[in-house]
Design brief:
Helices cover 31% and strands 15% of the residues. It is built from 17 helices and 19 strands. The strands form six sheets. The chain has a five-stranded parallel sheet with strand order 3-2-1-7-17, covered by helices on one side. The protein has a five-stranded parallel sheet with strand order 9-15-10-11-12. The chain has a three-stranded antiparallel sheet with strand order 4-5-6, with no helix packed on it. Strand 5 and strand 6 form a beta hairpin. The longest helix is centred in the C-terminal third of the chain and has 25 residues. About 3% of the residues have low confidence.
């Protein structure tokens, strides 16, 4: 019997536990003894420990939920409270609770020979060890706050990281609030401050930002067709930048058509201002007339507690440079450091996981699940597929069609951040999910879905929807449960029912035509041509996207 430890009870750890427990039945492999260790008192990870009032997920419910535990009727975007309840229900449904050890903080993980020795401390400060054959590190990216240095920050009365912030009342009354960081969390915190009895709210950014409403006809993360975008794409196109270029111009064209600038929706980088003022953000929620002022990043805070902003050459600097901003509260919405403090040997860390970013080629017994960040997509569902691949490779490698895991495939799914970027572990959700499905052997072909659908024609009136959702739908995890080692019998019903709605709801021009039909008409013939001449093209041209 193989012994496996899981560190972390967030979505990644829960999914890994679920597939380890199902492996004996699904993979016909030896039994597994598994223990999950979690420092907190319950499941959820960052959704339990680091959420704030009115927090809402930025990825849609259809994408964020796991492949075989669906919500059915649900809002497009779940609140953090709703999602935490979903995760707890997932544990109950798959009977995961008995294998979870809460209030067990892992302090050290080391390799001793062919085994892994895990040291953990319980609430009563007792130190314990557990020796196992394999370990899944699922502690996540959002644990240790990233707090950049700002000269004079100690002169501000209240300084918080977003991980510490919980409720509006923490802003106080008639206070000036400075929010540092203009990502999703920064925007949320700024709106909470603007809807509180504060005096002034200022949102600071480093080098621009992009905000867009989530309340469109269909969430953008489920709007992309996969045929000739990921499926049936030639090797040359996978390793080129043609698709990336198309979608770049596609998005810029939509933005220009709708808002008169290719840079975004009323965004400062496009110098398109709201109501003529460079200091107002169009409120994404009702703010009762309150404004969120935008400013460059702070350079320093002087002896009088006044902020001096960096001159970024932009209109917001000209607008803010003569204003006296003396913050009473500063909230750092600056993300987290991707550190694993219990892993003392850094050569074993996630940065060295060279097989799909999950494990080291020379040691498949240590997996890092949930450590890659997608663009438009979600970490939990990618973590589910990472768990499927890692467990399959660990327990039943003979069930895999190929174990080559070529590094050349990374051009297909890896994002290429600028040198100055702090985060360098990004992937394209659609491309990465499909690559994992190919590795697992669960990516259905056109003949597969036609055969499956046709076989159900006597019992299902909607069987014909399956090939359409397969071709025009996004790469939902459920699509990759139709066949393969983790086949789920109800996958087709979800595809032709719940996920069919994502096709029905698309707008005609910007949904069906621009995001589905046109890319298929362009990249279908290109894939055929480059497939025929692929050996010649590969030898003549270096990959353009690295």
């Amino acid at each position: 019997m193989i012994r496996v430890a899981i560190i972390g009870a967030g979505p990644a750890g829960m999914a890994t536990l679920r597939y380890l427990l199902d492996a004996e039945n699904a993979l016909q492999c030896e039994p597994v003894e598994v223990k999950l260790f979690e420092a907190d008192t319950g499941v959820g990870g960052t959704f339990k420990a680091r959420m704030y009032e009115e927090a809402e997920l930025v990825s849609s419910a259809r994408f964020t939920t796991f492949s075989d535990f669906r919500l059915g009727e649900a809002p497009d975007f779940l609140s953090a409270v709703q999602y935490l309840k979903y995760l707890e229900d997932y544990c109950s449904h798959f009977k995961l609770w008995p294998y979870m050890n809460f209030s067990c903080r892992v302090t050290n993980l080391e390799k001793q020979g062919r085994s892994h020795v895990l040291t953990y401390v319980t609430n009563d400060q007792q130190e314990n060890t557990w020796t196992c054959d394999a370990v899944a590190v699922c502690s996540g990216l959002h644990v240790h706050p990233n707090i950049p240095h700002i000269e004079g920050i100690e002169r501000v009365p209240t300084v918080l990281h977003s991980s510490q912030f919980k409720k509006r009342e923490e802003f106080g009354v008639d206070k000036t609030v400075l929010v540092l960081g203009a990502g999703e969390t920064g925007a949320d915190v700024a709106v909470l401050a603007a809807t509180s009895p504060t005096k002034k709210v200022v949102l600071c950014h480093r080098n621009g930002f992009h905000l867009a409403t989530k309340t469109t006809s269909l969430p953008i993360d489920v709007s992309r067709a996969s045929l000739f975008d990921t499926m049936y794409l030639s090797t040359y196109l996978k390793r080129s930048s043609l698709l990336w270029t198309y979608y770049d111009y596609y998005i810029r064209g939509i933005l220009w058509f709708l808002w008169g600038t290719p840079h975004g929706w009323d965004q400062w980088i496009g110098e398109k201002f709201y109501n003529g003022a460079p200091s107002e953000i169009p409120p994404p929620v009702e703010t009762k007339g309150r404004e969120v002022e935008v400013a460059p990043w702070p350079e320093r805070i002087d002896e009088d507690g006044i902020v001096h902003f960096k001159n970024n050459g932009r209109p917001e600097y000209e607008y803010m440079k003569d204003q006296v901003i003396r913050p009473d509260v500063v909230v750092f919405c600056t993300g987290y450091e991707p550190t694993i403090p219990f892993l003392k040997d850094k050569s074993l860390g996630a940065d060295h996981a060279d097989v799909r970013g999950i494990w080291k080629r020379d040691d498949p017994t240590m997996g890092f699940i949930g450590f890659l960040r997608p663009n438009l997509g979600t970490i939990p569902t990618l973590a589910e597929m990472q768990a499927q691949l890692w467990v399959l490779n660990l327990l039943a490698p003979e069930r895999m069609k190929s174990r080559e895991f070529s590094r050349k495939d990374e051009a297909f799914y890896r994002l290429a951040p600028p040198e100055s970027a702090r985060l360098k572990y990004g992937v394209d959700h659609e491309s990465y999910a499909y690559q994992l499905a190919l590795d697992i052997g669960s990516a259905p072909s056109l003949t597969d879905v036609l055969r499956m659908g046709f076989s159900k024609r006597e019992t299902s009136d909607s069987w014909w929807r399956l090939p359409l959702v397969w071709a025009l739908g996004a790469n939902f995890n459920t699509k990759f449960r139709l066949l393969g080692p983790w086949k789920w019998n109800d996958a087709m019903g979800v595809m032709t029912g719940e996920l069919w709605e994502t096709i029905e709801r698309r707008q005609a021009v910007f949904g069906h035509i621009m995001a589905s039909i046109l890319p298929i008409l362009i990249f279908g013939p290109l894939s055929l041509i480059t497939f025929i001449f692929d050996p010649l093209l590969t030898s003549l041209f270096r990959p353009m996207h690295t």
